[in-house]
Amino acid sequence: MITRLAVTLLFMITLISTLSSNENLNQWLRPSEIPQPQDNKLNPSRIELGKLLYFDTRLSHSNKISCATCHHPKRGWTDLEPVAKAIGDEGTVGPRNSPAILNVAYQKHQFWDGRVKTLEQQALGPIEAKTEMNIALVTLIPKLNKIKGYQKLFLTAYPESKGIITKEYLAKAIASFERTVVSTLSHFDRYIMGDKSAISQKAKEGFKLFKGKAHCIDCHDSFNFSDGSFHNIGLNDGELKGKELGRYLVKKRATWYGVMKTPTLRDVTKSAPYMHDGSVKSLNEATHLCANGGRYTHNVKNKSTYIVDRKLTHTELSKVTSFIKTLEGPDMKLTIPTKFPQ
Length: 342
Hints:
The chain is mainly alpha-helical. It contains 11 helices and 2 strands.
């Protein structure tokens, strides 16, 4: 009787352990649907229109800059050239590193400082920004309405527009394409789906460190490997100025001083240099900086309590980096347009 009870208890413990393990892994699985607003549901005509607009350089003052200039599919959806700060109209240098637009559909806030919540709000910002596409919407909208090909496409995508292009429909179309920019199946995805040989033993040990001693999971959790929140990771000491103030520029709250949105780690191997200021050149450096207390330990106002020295060895840091590399997937299947509506 005692033996049967012992066997039963052992079976139950094993089952609970297995279920618990599966639950822990399920948090890393891609959601079944792409989030989308009721008034801008995805459909093929909207996505295709948005893609054309996304790659069309006529949406800039110089006719040389497109959304893809700073968010290109061949570079992890960041700058096509690996620059620290975005380079916009007529060679102007922006104040921040271009954030990847990969998986932006799953984010609750857009831009490094999270100043808008929806992709429709985000889509128009870079168009008018002087250091980006540098064209006022009052100039761009009439310009687009003179292109008969675009009028027909807007009529198909948004019949209620009657083919008349407005800033609202322009934003909806670009946002529709951006929502489809999602990460592809990585080695890590295959691993959590059951293929235990999909990643190396070193990467498995790195994953354990990622969730444990390194505390990476404090900021980089769930499918998108981002908490969607904002943190000051100690890149600068002393008083901050200008765009370095981060979310504090949105609203002057003490807890928002110098904080920036947590980026996704999906395909992060493709998008160096890193951080909002582009000051971190390699993934190894980024891992070391975050896990071992930030760049500065003194005079950092409002530094995140998550950013402390975890005392990781070089070997342990190498394992964490090895794991992060398993989050890279193949480039998204995408035909980049070379001809645009006339």
